Amino acid sequence: MKKKIIIGNWKMNPATVSEAKVIVAGIKRTALKLSKVTVALCPPYIYFSDALKAAGKGKLAIGVQDIFHEQAGSYTGEVSPAMVKNAGGTYAIVGHSERRRLGESDSIIAKKVSAGLSAGLTVVLCIGEHTRDDHGVYLAFIHEQLMGALSKVSKKFLKHLIIAYEPVWAIGRSDKDAITPRLLHEMVLYIRKVLSDEYGEDIGRHIPVLYGGSVFVNNAKEFLSEGMADGLLIGRESLKPVEFSTILKIAHEVRV
Ligand code: PGA
């Protein structure tokens, strides 16, 4: 049984560093006790080092929500994967749909995935269709996003890759609007097939595939059990220590 991976994406929240520290401290208490879950929080850059201090050494990893695709140089406002790594970060989300909406293209995402992995970060690559249709167009879309993003990655780095399947239509909604476990399971199998066809079955089986999009305490379990996701990428609920900690316990207990 693989350890479940639960990642919190804080997006552009909270408003103050003291709130950020309280959230990390609240989550840390539970994260430290659970041996069957890997937990990472991705706060905004400005809280990164405080979050790292509050997390302390050990079980609660701190990551970032984006990285640039070069390691150093004249790129005003950007943060490189090497900087994140050197500062103690371990995870980097890349290609979130909210960044794609701001104009990030598949080719930029491909460079970021490659730069993040080469710098030694675990890259959480987000993919997801905008809508569903009856003819499988969304599957072709997922195939293209996935292979496009991995087009610059050498095979030896794939062990540090995580895929987060986040259908855009399910992000930031209510629990009733999230995907059904059955549809999620189908998609997890599809993503694994695409990866296996490209890189071989062993790699296809081992790359973790997470689900993200309106995950709450009351639906987390079904994504991990019937949905067969290897973990969750959680937005809003990752800012609430009590709820997020409950989800961590659910992930710790799930038997799949
Ligand atoms: P949500 O966000 O959990 O608030 O829907 C998920 C995400 O965008 O990663």
Multimeric state of these chains? single chain
Ions, cofactors and other bound molecules: 2-phosphoglycolic acid
Tally the beta strands: 8
Backbone structural class: alpha/beta
Tell me the helix content: 25-40%
- Please provide the ordered H/E string of secondary-structure elements: EHEHEHEHHEHEHHEHEH
Chain-averaged pLDDT: 97
Largest beta-sheet characterization: 8 strands, parallel, barrel
How many H/I helical runs? 10
- Beta fraction of the residues? 15-25%
Unreliable segments of 5+ consecutive residues: none
- Give the strand line-up of the largest sheet: 1-2-3-4-5-6-7-8
Radius of gyration (Å): 17 Å
Distinctive features:
256 residues, alpha/beta, eight-stranded parallel beta barrel, 10 helices, 16% strand, globular, binds 2-phosphoglycolic acid
Structure commentary:
- α1 runs parallel beside α10 and α6 (137-149) packs across α7 (181-199).
- The mean pLDDT is 97.
- The protein is of the alpha/beta class and 256 residues long.
- Helices cover 40% and strands 16% of the residues.
- The structure holds 2-phosphoglycolic acid.
- 2-phosphoglycolic acid is lined by residues 9, 166, 171-172, 212-215, 233-236.
